[in-house]
Amino acid sequence: DPEISEMHIENAPEMSDESGDSGRTRTESATSVSSESWQNNDEMMGNLRRAQGLLDQGATPLQIIRQIFPDFDVSRVAMMSENAHFALLSDLLERAPIRQKLPEFNSLADAVELFKTRKNILILTGAGVSVSCGIPDFRSKDGIYARLRGEFPNLPDPTAMFDIRYFRNNPAPFYNFAREIFPGQFTPSVSHRFIKELESAGRLLRNYTQNIDTLEHQTGIKRVVECHGSFSKNTCTECGDQTDGMVIREDVLAMRVARCKKCDGVIKPNIVFFGEDLGKDFHRCVTEDKNKVDLIVVIGSSLKVRPVALIPHCVGKDVPQILINRESLPHYNADIELLGNCDDIIRDICFSLGGSFAEMIASYDTIMEEKKEKEPVKEHHPVVSRNKRQLFSQQEFLNICLREKKGTSESEDEPNLKRPRMSTSDNMDTEKDAFHDIQKHKSEDDEDTMNSDDVLKNIKHPRLLNITDMLNDNKCVAISTYQTVFPGAECSFDLETQKLVREVNHYARSGCSTSESSSSDTLSQSNAISRAQSMDDFVLLEERQKLSSEQRSDSCDDNLQYELSDPINPET
């Protein structure tokens, strides 16, 4: 199973912190259990201690899984390597609890009201807030990981580019790519300015950013925690000498490995690679904030990297949560989901809030227009809405879809360029509730199918409409009680079942080299709860597939997998 084989746990050095100790290899984690006390992990830590005890007694990871997680079906992984079993055990031990949705918060209007009334808003941002700045995100279909597969075929896995052990052995690929995301080339987005506006209004408790582009500082946000570090400082991997981030600028732009002037060691920016500790500031701030926060907003993040991904699960059960992202997240139950381009959604919220927020949008548009006139810039400049979008009802949206279905059957040989294009993805995955699992089975040994974007582009599902093409720049649709879809959402509409599906990132389906992607470390060595770690969804997928096999609609395509859920209700 490629989803399981790519799981890995790494051990590595700690990022810089206030004490000045940074970038040096450590034989054990510098983050103690007490620094993880912000996590609601009593059960998690109990299971971890139990697993360690069984491991000390000589039990295999598969035996431990059977003991601690008797409901998990191990038959599908029994033939895999012990490294894969350790990765699976680690993931099971660290799974965040399933959050229960608050029924009183659902709509876009509810989200706007929360932004108006809440005073301690915790915003967790990912790469999605910087996409409009010209910085690619990581996990989308056109993101960094998808590109790395083609541009660096010798990488054992796209995530190896940001893996500390791989960097130590071969820093060249990182330096060949780093100039694309190096600070100083980009202008902060609407999303960054929105967060700054919340701070100016006294409503921002903290911005936890997973980004390393320093755009928060460029925007002037003070209450920010750079969870995964940044390019602002560097550390020599040999002597530990620390320098300003701009010291390596020429090397980065020249795609040349930066060397220490004192010892000629390789210089590493103080960004947190997979396998590195996050540092004391992060844990201290989360501990302070978890009991103060009255609203959590996740913007542009897949929540796949721990321990940052656990923040939404450490707060009180009565704290409402909003997801603003291109796609729904199967492992995270937000109360309100606003799906589409982050900036487009934020613009709509700002228009609804009015006052200084609407003024900020007008000011930003003026700045960007002037910048475009002066010089070509790296930022993306899509057509933007100058006013609040019109909200489609489900009935209106369904009527458009049904008209499209009729038009497709009548004019297959004469495509209409004005019609929404069909989705060309060969690989679909489930969304919870209104979203549905459509994942085409592929042979693991079919290398062309697994790796060729050209092949994927030539395969079409005529039943699927790209939802972004069905929503012009002035429209959005409340596709379910708690989900509103905007342009840019990475999902399609199934004409047959009247359900939404979303595309799977193709890089995640690739097999990985065992030596690079699987950890040989024991549980005591990994201490992965406090380290940056990629979190895959294979456990959730296993459960969804089990559900899908038991309860399937008669209208479901035999070649596709669906999660049980309801189609759009035309009466809503």
TrEMBL record:
Stretches for region Disordered: 1-40, 404-430, 509-529, 541-572
Biased segments, Low complexity type: 510-526
Keyword Ubl conjugation listed: no
Any one Gene Ontology cellular component term annotated for this protein: nucleoplasm
UniProt feature, compositional bias: Polar residues: 28-40
EC code: 2.3.1.286
Cofactor(s) named in the record: Zn(2+)
Residue span, Deacetylase sirtuin-type domain: 101-374
Residue numbers annotated as active site: 228 (proton acceptor)
Sites where the protein binds Zn(2+): 236, 239, 260, 263
Amino acid composition bias (Basic and acidic residues), ranges on this chain: 1-11, 541-555
A GO MF label: histone deacetylase activity, NAD-dependent
UniProt subcellular location: Nucleus
Main location as per UniProt: nucleus
Keyword tags: Metal-binding, NAD, Nucleus, Transferase, Zinc
Pfam family, one: SIR2
Family the entry assigns: Belongs to the sirtuin family. Class I subfamily.
Protein name in the entry: NAD-dependent protein deacetylase sir-2.1
Gene name tied to this protein: sir-2
